[in-house]
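Hi all, long-time lurker, first post. I run a small reading group and we've been trying to get comfortable going from sequence to structure in the token notation. Rather than ask abstract questions, I figured I'd post a concrete chain and ask someone more experienced to write out its structure so we can walk through it together at our next meeting. Sequence below, copied exactly:
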Amino acid sequence: MFQKDKFARTCIHIVLVLLILFLLSKLQFVLAPLKAAFSLIFFPIALALFLYYLFRPVIRRLDKWKIRRPWSILLLYAVAVGVIVGFSLWVWPILRNQFIGFTNNLPQLAQNFSNQLQLLLLRLQEQEVWGTRINDIDVGLNIPQQLSGYLENVINSVSNYLSSALSVVAWIFLVVSTVPMILYFMLKDDRRGYAFLLKGVPYRYRPVMRGMAVDIDTALSGFIVGRVLLAACVGVFDLIGFLIVGVPYPLLLVLFIIFTDMIPYIGVYLGALPVVIVGFIDSPASVIWIIVVIVLGQMLRNNLLSPVIYGSALDIHPLTTVFLLLGSGVIGGFLAILIIIPVYMVVKIVVVHLYRYYRSRKLAAPKPL
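-- Answer (accepted) --
Happy to help. Here is the structure in token form:
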């Protein structure tokens, strides 16, 4: 009966897979070491893959100049070391002072924000709506007190997060120390590694796997290189604007904007929120100029830089992106938000290619008489 009933066979396969997953979830003595090993390996490989797509165009350009691949990689590393040394000498002291000042002044910033908000609300309460003062309207809410409580909770959460982040600095350096070695072999065995992996695929599946790999490589390269260049250009523009406006901690806030700008669509709002809050605390009138700077930066990005650097927008509907970011944030936190879009792009390409392959096989199969 099950041999002829395709739906029943599919249901049995699904039940067996779910049963295997359930039994595996009970083997914590096996899963715990695997989970620890994966968490240790994931970060170096993900960072090396990110840098691979970022630096690969430079290495391939050096290949056209007849420079051998190992020497071009070492030259790239030498330039990277020079940039790091320059950053440490000229940028890092400023950034460190701004970071220390920002973290030390978080409680005072929260109090100043509450004071500025109460002053703004007192001014608004003196205004009249349809002949009635807003202060005489009883809505049953103490807005300043509630917002102050919310802000205090946010400040405490940020302080705890920064404390926990500083406690794992040694672990981060340990993980990052393995990235240059992984990146070296990724860049050195660029096309040869791809050909080696393709040889392990059965011959009849190689055409579909080759097309799938090319599309994945193109999508990841365009996403990573495009977003990094766009975020860096917009960050420079915002930094100049913040220095003109006089925003406190400009370098620290711009680096946060560049970091969050890697997230499509909502990254600009996540990066702008701390800048607006800090500007409101310093001077409520400066918020308008801060918003003008951010809006001009996004206009420059979307209308001028994006068509030149990125070529075209992501082939993902904005609503799909929002749902992906929300779901990944709930499941995996901020790290999942950073990687969900490239992961979705890869999964989408794999599914599309497999569907086309099996669809073509089905259409090419001889029909029974």
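A couple of things your group might point at:
The chain is about 80% helix and 0% strand.
The chain has a mean pLDDT of 79.
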